[in-house]
Amino acid sequence: MGFTEASTIQRSLIEWAEEAGWEYLRGDELPRDEHDVIVEGWAREALLALNTELADDPESAELVLHDLNQVVLDAHNGLVAANERLTVMLRGDHSFPTIDGEHVPRRLIDFENLDNNRFTVADEVTIAGAGRPRRFDVVYYVNGFPLVVVETKTPVKQQVSWVNAARDIYGTYEEEYPNFFATNVFNVATEGLELRMAPIRAVPDPASEIWAPWGSTEDDPKVITGPARVERAARLLLRPETILPMLKDLAMFRHARDASEVDLKFLPRYPQFEAALGIHQKVLDGRPGGLIWHHQGSGKTELMAFAAARLLRDPAVTEVFGGAPTVIVIADRKDLVRQTAEMFETAGMPRMSVPKNRRELFALLRSGEPGVVITTVHKFAEAGHLNDRSNIVVLVDEAHRSQEGKFGEAWRAAVPNAKFFGATGTAIQDKDRSTFKLFGDPDDPDFVMSRYTPEQSIADGFTKPVIVEGRSVGFSLDKDALDEAFDELASDEALDEDEKVYLSGKASHIETILSNPERVAAVCADIVDHFLAYVAPLGQKAQVVAYNQRLVIAYARAIEDELVRRGAIMPDGQPREVGVVMHVADSKDTPKEYRQYLLTPEQEEALKRRFKKVDDPMSFVVVTAKWMTGFNAPIEGVLYLDKPAKDANLFQTITRPNRPWKNPITGQRKDYGRVVDYIGLAKAIGNAIAGPEARGGEDDKVNVTDASKLAGKFVTDLTRLLHLFVGIDTTDSSFDSLAEAHERIPEDSAGRSEFVETYVALQTVWEFLDPHPMLTPFKQQYYWLAKVYESIRPKDVSRAFLWARLGAKTTELIHGHMNEVVVKSMASRTVTLDAAGLALVKRIAEQLRLPGNPPEGPEHPDVYQQVLDSIEARLHRRLAEGESPVYKSLAERIEKLRAKAIENVEDSLAFLEEALRIAQDVVAADRAVEAGDEDALERLADPKRGVLTQIVEENTPPGLHQIVPEIVDRIDAIVHEVAYTGWTSSDAGDKAVRRELRAVLKNYGLPIKGDLFDRIYQYVRENY
């Protein structure tokens, strides 16, 4: 029997459902007519069981079922509206009429005691009506209401993915039978390799963050992948303990504000779901609060709304505290208050208040009325003591900022017995402030109740990697002439020494350098160069961060002049515009040139809306503090940074462009966000991303790597692809050439799969890097491969593969319009913040905390030398205690490393990786000395041969152990003879090394296949 969806993933879903407590029935065994949506007999049983007064009032019970069916039928007039009405009904929030004309709430599902419900999973469920019958693969029923529909596809067809399943739901089933989805909580699409969930009317897209993966924040995205991730997701998502909280508390609806919008249903992602339920449980348990540390851009403001809804809708919270709670949601800006308030404008949600001023806020909190109060932190100024109630829950968005100074103290003093929960993407830990101690529960590991890391967020597709491109803005300065002129000025003005120090200090401020008109002009010209070459073709927008208000205006004018000079226009011919957003005091003392940028909240909101529209000419916005943090505009593709920043503020700033975005006109998706750094913050960026630690146990990893590696990856992938077509003339564009290419990658072959997967990766890198000088020599070969890909591209596959129509920049490449633009960059100050590892910086920082004091002071400004000095300081103590080959070997390794030139970030990574290995070996040597382990010391003295010796010894017969050193010598020599830099990326190099290793083993009568060869090869690949 072949692999089909029914025999693979569909069968597994049924098995997992039964293990979770669902009763399984075949679709044709359900007690329903094929035209029915609700299994009416089960719904009636639940209605009578949960509303005992209806046992003697069957006519009123029938009225309830009649009203439910009427709304189900009304889904043909608008599915989202019908779904919202039925959500309210299923929650028990709707009052149904009785036969006597009264209106009484009715319970249809028991959310408190789940055992009182009927949970049924059915497969091959048919729905019939005016059109052709349709069959749903798997449906999950609760008390006869279909709450979840799962569409499955086969996992073994290259052309089929979860997207095809999602398309069937969105484009066929919901269109033809919207009534079946009227009671729906969410839909699921899977082919067994990936599983995604989404609310009704979610447009399917391969890179969609709406069709979201499910999982657990406890899982490592690098370890749990593919079918294992699907099983994990299904077991966590498709169970009553997840589906019913979604229905009862967390499903929300946003209504269209004008004709350009549509009604939307939205649901939490799994980190939001976990955190919302975690907050709710902590409140029930009487805990003081907790810290939610989720990556920037992963939906913390939405989390506040989900958590508040959960708290206010649960009668158990009221019972615990003897009264309904008040939930205060604190943001640090008015626009975040508006954004949060929109989340609550949905049917069936608790009462919400947004006080206009301090007086209204104080009155609300003194009154003790239950509900949601959404406000800014600033309104708590001078509040004093307002309420002693313990059933107040404070949810603080951007907790790292709201904790600071008088405001953080003010809201804690106002409601001292409240529970305080803080959500942040950039926790702070320094000598003056600790987000962990202020919000963290001591019972939580490292004071964090919920952690969602950058690598998890990027792996899930909720945020995008950020490329940080370094720039060198150099200038020459004749210091001797400057000193002479300054002394002359001091003499002429009769300045004393203190006055000279003060004046020189003011003059040497960074603003002096940044405000140099020539520098402003040069930076802004480079900004426009970069924008027009890399960002504008994708339809994205740009944010520029300048040092202060004066420079914001200077940059805005310089960018405007550059755009005019270059004739930069939108695709429809409109000239591109530059906006300015900064805090301007409404005061008579405010300079006139600043006052023209004084915006009301409404004007600022209008500017933000313009910036977010792809067809609006507002292409740049220049800021200095506003919009640097908390600003959410997915269309922002690049942030140009020319202002010093550090730690949390720096991290928040550089993650502005990390939101996923799809160009609604071309369909092009954002693969990366960009930050262009003109201020030299590469090292600070690494520190900011590494983040603080609460107790030294934080395990987040950070990868800092040269963006030019992307160009290297392009060449590597291109070589892999061309290897499939060796002997074919890629300059030949004839049919014969194309036919020959097809013969090399026949349909359903491993070669075809390799070509498709590698080409998609190749196209992504080209899209991002073009125009890059390194790509120019490969243009013709890339274009030939593009033609081959387009000719074999399956016509109905996921839109992730639609290169020609969605590759806006590549299309321009084919037309030959983007080859003359050259952007200056400084590779040694370019870093990538990606999900591939996010591994090195924090690991190095942790491993290098060796006993002893690292050198300090200005005489050790070089971080690389500091690393070596800190290791060497410990080595010298050991060497002073006596001669030891292992410590001499380690010292020699340090000297070799010290002599290495570091010219770019790739070099620095290699340097730090080797330094990390040496540091680990120093610690291992100390332990071996203390334990008297001579074998370990011998291995450490020559680590490569030492490990090889151990591998060979463990896998050779006892009689051969005496020749192990000889075998190891031969392997070591052979590899050095055969291997070369980059051999692991070369098919020929890899084969040569494998061949020679097998020859060595064969010569000594050892097996050339199996564990011995595999371990030796793996070690050689990683270390030679």
From TrEMBL:
Entries under InterPro entries matching the protein: Helicase_ATP-bd, HsdR_RecA-like_helicase_dom_2, P-loop_NTPase, Restrct_endonuc_type1_HsdR_N, Restrct_endonuc_typeI_HsdR, SWI2_SNF2, Type-I_R_enzyme_R_subunit
Domain (Helicase ATP-binding): residue spans on this chain: 281-445
Key words, A-Z: ATP-binding, DNA-binding, Endonuclease, Hydrolase, Nuclease, Nucleotide-binding, Restriction system
One of the GO biological process terms: DNA restriction-modification system
Catalysis performed (reactions): Endonucleolytic cleavage of DNA to give random double-stranded fragments with terminal 5'-phosphates, ATP is simultaneously hydrolyzed
EC number assigned by the record: 3.1.21.3
An example Gene Ontology molecular-function term: type I site-specific deoxyribonuclease activity
UniProt xrefs under CDD domains: HsdR_N
Entry function: Subunit R is required for both nuclease and ATPase activities, but not for modification.
Family of this protein: Belongs to the HsdR family.
Subunit structure: The type I restriction/modification system is composed of three polypeptides R, M and S.
Name listed for the protein in its UniProt record: Type I restriction enzyme endonuclease subunit
Annotated organism of origin: Microbacterium hydrocarbonoxydans
